[in-house]
Design goal:
CATH architecture of the domain at 154-359 and 593-617: 3-Layer(aba) Sandwich
Low-confidence stretches: 1-13
Distance between the termini: 32 Å
Bound molecules: ligand MGD, iron/sulfur cluster, molybdenum atom
Structural class: alpha/beta
CATH topology of the domain at 154-359 and 593-617: Dimethylsulfoxide Reductase, domain 2
Largest sheet: 7 strands, mixed
Number of strands: 30
Radius of gyration: 25 Å
Strand content: 15-25%
Shape: globular
CATH class of the domain at 154-359 and 593-617: Alpha Beta
Mean pLDDT: 95
CATH superfamily of the domain at 154-359 and 593-617: Dimethylsulfoxide Reductase, domain 2
Amino acid sequence: MSQLTEVQAPEQAASSTETTHHRICPLCEACCGLEVKVRAGKVISIRGHEADVFSAGYICPKGVALKDLHEDPDRLRTPLIKRHGVFVEASWDEAFAEINRRLPPLMAAHGKDSVAVMAGNPSAHKIGLLLYFARLAKALGTRNVFSASTLDQMPKQLSSGLLFGHWLSIPVPDITRCDYLLMLGANPLASNGSLWTVPDFKGKAKAMQARGGKLVVIDPRRSETAAIADEHHFIRPGGDAFLMLGMLHTLFDEKLIKLGRLAEFINGLSDVEAAVLPFSAHAVAARCGVDAETVRRLARTLAATPRAAVYGRIGTCTQEYGTLASWLVDVLNIVTGHLDEAGGAMFPKAAAFAANTAGKPGTGKGISTGRHHSRVNAAPEIMGELPITCLAEEIETAGPGQIRAFISIATNPVLSSPNGPRLARALDQLDFMVSMDIYLNETSRHANIILPGPSPLEDLHYDVAFPQFSWRNHARYSAPVFGRSGGQPDEWETLMRLCGIVQGKGCDVTAAELDDEQFARDASRLFGEQAPAVVAAMGGLTGPERMLDVALRSGPYGDAFGQKPDGLNLQKVKSASGAAGGLDLGELGPRIPEVLRTASGKIELAAPSLLNDLHRAVADLARTVPDMVIIGRREVRSNNSWMHNLPLLAKGPFRCTALLNPLDATRLGLAEGAFAKISSSQGRKHIEAQIHITDTMMPGVVSLPHGWGHDKPGARLAVASERPGVNLNDLLDDQLRDPLPGNAVLGGVAVELSALATYQDA
Ligand SMILES: Nc1nc2c(c(=O)[nH]1)N[C@H]1C(S)=C(S)[C@@H](COP(=O)(O)OP(=O)(O)OC[C@H]3O[C@@H](n4cnc5c(=O)[nH]c(N)nc54)[C@H](O)[C@@H]3O)O[C@H]1N2
Ligand SMILES: Nc1nc2c(c(=O)[nH]1)N[C@H]1C(S)=C(S)[C@@H](COP(=O)(O)OP(=O)(O)OC[C@H]3O[C@@H](n4cnc5c(=O)[nH]c(N)nc54)[C@H](O)[C@@H]3O)O[C@H]1N2
Ligand code: SF4
Ligand SMILES: [Mo]
């Protein structure tokens, strides 16, 4: 409906003249600048923006598919309320009134913890969701806060917090000056990078190779990235910590430790040396599946190359030893003198919102965890959250603090979280559920009310998170391409309205009023006596733009509200964005000790909790390897669980296939294209997936992408349901967690494969 009557932005007028707009893509962490051409209210083309200072014209097919997303008839344009089991369209007023009727009484009767809230992956890409989710969580006052982080990077956040004092102080390879990049468990040619915002990784890797640099990939699959690497080594899934322990042992053993400039800022080196004694290259080889000589050679090359970096990503996080592996990536960089050095692993310096540029440089409070625990499983709180794999049991288990209502925000955990079917059943037991989502999908179908967000092309954009992980420092802003119709609010406004409701202010108070109140409170907390001046300086700004202006002006490049006239503010970033391509803030520079926020003001190399976790690894050195384990993968034309409804991306070969080495296929009697039964090792659960035989797989490992299984009744995904695929997470166990951060174990899980009697079509 509404896309035909789209209200255009004023500059487009209603005419059929072609207009050009510039928009940062919000779909993945690469944050590419796009050029969008529009005529008569319709997108006519999307391509990479050549003049973008950060992405220089790079784009992938998902960026082009923003047109499909904008026009998707299944994308929700109005709230839905479930009445007698059927979703009916409702006005925004009706939707908020219904929430106000049901949620506050439930909280009054059962307490704050009876409401759970969860933010999913797209929240990290939307300024309104990212900045205002925290407000809603605070307004709810519940301990039951969840996010996709515990399906993803929480191990890295924990290890970074322990090492450097802040959860988001995560160094990234300085690729343009690097000569040796050792990459574990990442496939940026498919994912376009993660915890490392690096559009056109391939181009940058090729440039590195052209100047003699080497890319080495460690992965149980010869991935697209491994295929362009100078070296690729298979590793047993979950073996990364062991490989890196073997490398570290070699560095100590062969006296290759070089701390360089950082020596005076490091605590705990000798404790690490003692702790790695059991992990000689020889001792770890069988466990990680990399031979001892290769383990030693990787260590020696890393130590001997002046400009080198180790980088690990999702494959190293979502596994049994995710936190140890994440920690070891940084330890290797540190003890070989590559941290905080040009061409090594460096800390970006974001223009706004980076906690590691706030407060007193070089010191802080460090991090703490376990301030409370989950009710059923006693999983420790981490970064204010509980592990998402605790959600189902917290809904199912009666008693004080039981979850009875759930607000899901831009997340689809029925597909993206292990044991999706259990979670789906649990969601049906809730008294009340609100979903902020742009689709009626596998998760939002369980809601009583769905509140849609605008299309990305109707939304302003500034990346809050990703400049903190960027290959180069920058600041870029995008204005909306289209106006709105149908009273569609911004998502920050929806979140503020929900805040008002749960605070007992009812549903008549506007988002702007609530936001003004909150802003005044925040300003006085942050700026004390200066607060009135700051509030006045913000003039007519509201919502996320006002928070952005404050963050830019008080940030490391800021104008300090006029005290540094050459500094940045929102107006300057806006003028430098759009066609001009954004502000380049230069290559990464050294930040130690200034970036540190540990209590000691040092890098804490040997956090007791991590050294303690090494005992688990010692005990596990001799574990027998299961015959078959499963891992995940990503594909360029897919994005977690939700872009399979866009025709441009959905076309082409079927992607939800299980990749298997020829040796395994022969052993199991599986032919190319056959369907196999994949069972969890306890045999309780199984899925059926089509086999593709390829020697890119390590023997004993099967690879299946996640985010599929679009055959659930009640979802409204016409294109995706044509080829639904199967859900890897139907198979995985929600009780399998990396103990320290409670992160889900999504890879290296034992499974059994067998041939199905009949052949089917994909
Ligand atoms: N087995 C396995 N499971 C995995 C992974 C894996 O590697 N293997 N990866 C994990 C990782 S890294 C992640 S981050 C999680 C992601 O898991 P989720 O956090 O569940 O994220 P998505 O699957 O991307 O689903 C995003 C949801 O947001 C909705 N959405 C999209 N855009 C918007 C918007 O602008 N506003 C609103 N309100 N909603 C929007 C979509 O319709 C969809 O419902 O999956 C995890 N699950
Ligand atoms: N096209 C596309 N892009 C995406 C996404 C998407 O779904 N599609 N999702 C986005 C999200 S939410 C994230 S978090 C990022 C993730 O970005 P990446 O971390 O680059 O994720 P993947 O592409 O899944 O690559 C992970 C690699 O780890 C390997 N692997 C699996 N287990 C192990 C192991 O135990 N050890 C080692 N060494 N390797 C292992 C897999 O074979 C795979 O090649 O991608 C983001 N970008
Ligand atoms: S790589 Fe693709 S999806 Fe990611 S930001 Fe760039 S265009 Fe968007
Ligand atoms: Mo992710």
